[in-house]
Amino acid sequence: MDIVFKAINDPTRREILRFLTHGPQNAGTIAQQFNMTKPSISHHLDLLKQAQLIDFSKKGQFLVYTLNKSGFESIHAWFQPFTLFFELPKPKIRL
Amino acid sequence: MDIVFKAINDPTRREILRFLTHGPQNAGTIAQQFNMTKPSISHHLDLLKQAQLIDFSKKGQFLVYTLNKSGFESIHAWFQPFTLFFELPKPKIRL
DNA sequence: TAAATAATTAAACAAATATTTAAATATAAA
DNA sequence: TTTATATTTAAATATTTGTTTAATTATTTA
């Protein structure tokens, strides 16, 4: 659980996630988007992977990254009680 | 924006938020829930406040903390594109 | 007004994090 | 089979973060 929150705490990692909503991308293409070294991006990708926010598959010499639903489901599950808290109308009288 | 993600990155702060779904609580009552000094909790409350995830009002010598919708709305807004990404059925054919 | 209570702010420090450069691994092309 | 390309792993380091103890502020009660 912790790892998902850690993963989305970083602005670069959030941008990577946003970039991947455009579709699968290989590591180099992702790295090009940022003014940062490849090893740094590689580290961010690793963390996002650990959090199950992304996944990858090997295509020849390339690693192609995609969004992974399960990490996002964790966030959604955590968020749910607060949605209920704010959206459920509070009873005005004690029953 | 960043501050909200920073705020929810810490497990103690997430527990504080969860605790506040039970209703408004003063700082001392919150601190009692944790095996941690009051100054530490006070610092966590300050961060949650900065992130607009909580708010407080003074009641005599007590500070009463409550959940604040606006921080949660920021999270929801960030999450929205991913909801769309995963839940929108992808067209199987190119139109 | 003096003492007690509720809570924060400040200073110090250990642990965690993001970044870089350099080295390593794996695949493809010449 | 050598060279180039894509990417990761490792080591080093500066910055950020969470915690504690000590000091401070504000309010209540005796």
Protein model, in words:
2 copies of one chain form a homodimer. With 95 residues, chain A is α+β, with helices and mostly antiparallel strands. The first copy, chain A, has one domain: Winged helix-like DNA-binding domain superfamily/Winged helix DNA-binding domain (Arc Repressor Mutant, subunit A). In chain A, 59% of the residues lie in helices and 15% in strands. In chain A, helix 1 packs antiparallel against helix 4. Chains A and B meet through helix 1, helix 2 and helix 5 of A and helix 1, helix 2 and helix 5 of B.
Average per-residue pLDDT of chain A, rounded, comes to: 95
Tell me the name of the CATH homologous superfamily of chain A: Winged helix-like DNA-binding domain superfamily/Winged helix DNA-binding domain
CATH class of chain A: Mainly Alpha
The gross shape of chain A turns out to be: elongated
Estimate percent helicity of chain A. 55-70%
The gist of it:
Chain A is 59% helix and 15% strand. Chain A is α+β, with helices and mostly antiparallel strands and 95 residues long. Chain A has a three-stranded antiparallel sheet.
Topology:
The structure is a homodimer of 95-residue chains.
Chain A: H1 2-9, H2 11-20, E1 25-26, H3 27-32, H4 38-50, E2 54-59, E3 62-67, H5 69-87
Antiparallel strand pairs in A: 1-3, 2-3
Helix pairs in contact in A: 1-4
The structure holds a DNA duplex (30 and 30 nucleotides).
Keywords (chains A, B): DNA-binding, Transcription, Transcription regulation
Organism (chains A, B): Aquirufa aurantiipilula
Pfam family, one (chains A, B): HTH_5
